[in-house]
C-alpha cells in the first residue's frame, strides 16, 4: 500500500503517516521514486503507534515493539570482502581518527586561550578595584581637609529641620 491508502485506513493525513515514519525512524520500503511502500506488518506497526498516541502518549515517548530490520540491495559486482573495499574502509577509519584528533587539539587550544583571557581579565579587574579604592581614599581625605564653605552643594551636610508637632485637631481639620 502507498502512503495515501494507509492514511485513509488509519484515518489520518498522509503527512502524519510520513512524520511518524521519520520521527520514529521506522524502516519502511520505498519504491524507485522514493515513496513509502507499506506491508501488512508495517500497517500493524502504525496502528500500534496510533493507539499509543490516542492514549495520550507523546510521539517522542512512543515505544515500538516490532521494529523490523532495514532491507537493502547490493550489487553482485561489489563484494564487501573485496580487498579494495577493505583498504578504503581502513583509510576512512584512519582519516576519521585524525579528524577527531585535530578537533580535540583545536578545542584544547581554544580552552587554554579562553582560560588565559579570563585570567587576564581577572587581573585587570583586581587592578581596577585597587585603583577605585585609592581614588575613594584620596577623595575622602581631601574632603576632610577642605573647609565647609568651599565644598560643593551636594558634598555639604545640611542640618536637618526639626518637625513641628501638630495638634491632632489641626491635622484633622487643617487649621
From TrEMBL:
The keyword Endoplasmic reticulum does not apply. Residues 85-145 form a coiled coil. Keywords: Cell cycle, Cell division, Chromosome partition, Coiled coil, Cytoplasm, DNA-binding, Sporulation. It is found in: Cytoplasm. InterPro entries: Chrosome_anchoring_RacA (IPR023522), DNA-bd_dom_put_sf (IPR009061), MerR-type_HTH_dom (IPR000551). GO terms for cellular component: cytoplasm. Residues 1-63 form the HTH merR-type domain. Residues 3-23 bind DNA. Belongs to the RacA family. This is Chromosome-anchoring protein RacA. The gene is racA.
Amino acid at each position: 500500500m502507498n502512503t495515501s491508502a494507509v492514511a485513509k485506513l488509519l484515518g489520518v493525513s498522509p503527512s502524519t503517516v510520513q512524520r511518524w515514519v521519520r520521527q520514529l525512524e521506522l524502516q519502511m520500503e520505498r519504491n524507485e521514486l522514493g515513496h513509502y511502500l507499506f506491508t501488512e506488518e508495517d500497517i500493524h506497526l502504525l496502528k500500534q503507534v496510533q493507539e499509543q498516541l490516542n492514549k495520550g502518549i507523546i510521539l517522542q515517548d512512543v515505544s515500538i515493539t516490532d521494529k523490523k530490520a532495514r532491507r537493502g540491495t547490493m550489487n553482485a559486482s561489489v563484494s564487501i570482502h573485496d580487498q579494495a573495499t577493505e583498504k578504503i574502509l581502513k583509510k576512512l577509519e584512519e582519516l576519521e581518527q585524525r579528524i577527531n584528533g585535530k578537533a580535540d587539539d583545536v578545542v584544547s587550544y581554544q580552552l587554554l586561550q579562553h582560560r588565559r583571557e579570563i585570567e587576564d581579565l581577572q587581573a585587570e579587574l583586581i587592578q581596577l578595584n585597587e585603583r577605585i579604592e585609592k581614588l575613594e581614599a584620596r577623595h575622602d581625605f581631601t574632603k576632610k581637609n577642605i573647609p565647609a564653605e568651599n565644598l560643593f552643594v551636594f558634598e555639604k551636610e545640611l542640618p536637618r529641620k526639626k518637625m513641628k508637632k501638630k495638634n491632632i485637631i489641626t491635622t484633622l481639620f487643617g487649621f
